[in-house]
Specification:
Layout (H helix, E strand, L loop, with lengths): L1 H6 L1 E4 L9 H28 L6 H29 L4 E3 H34 L4 H4 L2 H27 L8 E2 L6 H7 L5 H34 L4 H29 L8 H26 L1 H14 L6
Parallel strand pairs: 1-3
Antiparallel strand pairs: 1-2
Helix pairs in contact: 2-3, 2-10, 2-11, 3-4, 3-10, 4-6, 4-8, 4-9, 6-8, 8-9, 9-10
Amino acid sequence: MGNQTAELSFVFLGFSTFPEQHKLIFVVFLAVYLTALVGNGLILTVVWLDSGLQTPMYYFLQHLSFLDICYISVTLPQMLKNLLEEEKAISFPACFAQLYFLITFVGVECILLTVMAYDRYLAICHPLRYAALMGRRTCLWLAVASWICGVFNSALHTGLTSVLPFCASRHIAHLFCDVPQLLKLSCSDTSLNRVVLLAVTMLLGASPFLCIVVSYGAIIRAVLQIRSAQAQRKAFSTCTSHLAVVTLFYTTCTFNYNQPSSRHPLYIDTLASVLYNVVTPMLNPIIYCLRNKEVKAALKHAIRLKYPSLKT
């Protein structure tokens, strides 16, 4: 197993249905990657520099932007490389390194989105206690807990998957290394892996989503009790960006992981992978910049400071 593992490589089949479109797809993906890097980088920089954005909500937004940069950088450079090469191969160590970091960042994002929903719940439902409940130390520990959950979850899945023997086909019907696709290639019993995958999916996927739904249920109830229509709109405006990001993230994740892959063509898997791994990190900063007046105002202020002659 040692020599076999060291020499083993996998081949991605994700784009095999569009061979004549590889150059076009490369240009589109490169543009998406650069957009994601610039957009998330802008949010990191603006929140860091603007003293008016030094609040828990924007502290967690910084973590989300950093996550999206890491998230898309784990897989998209390899995809771009594969689009230019005839054999779209990845070595065993590189595949499992990609798997480890991908699962880490996805797990952290699940928990972090829940933390951000809890932050909005406290801000709207308990405004008088918000400053005491969401102090700097609390924010730090919530962020650290998100990362710890993601790291341990990833170590568990990667460890269990990496010890499996891969003696059947080495062709991955996907764009990157992921647990469900690798389990299909193993020639041993993977029932333990599948049970653990289901259990952790419920713990780190369904449970956080349920917490988000409960938080927003309480938020909606609290906002509807406000008599002023203007105050209602202001309260809802602080949540719409996060709610849009949550909807996008969980919709694409569900589409990617809960589809009967044996019953549809390969290009459906490819589309699901692109939505889940490429489009989401690019759209998150756009959503926050377009829907959040404070971020837009801070960005305009930063541009005016950098380029005084420009009118924004």
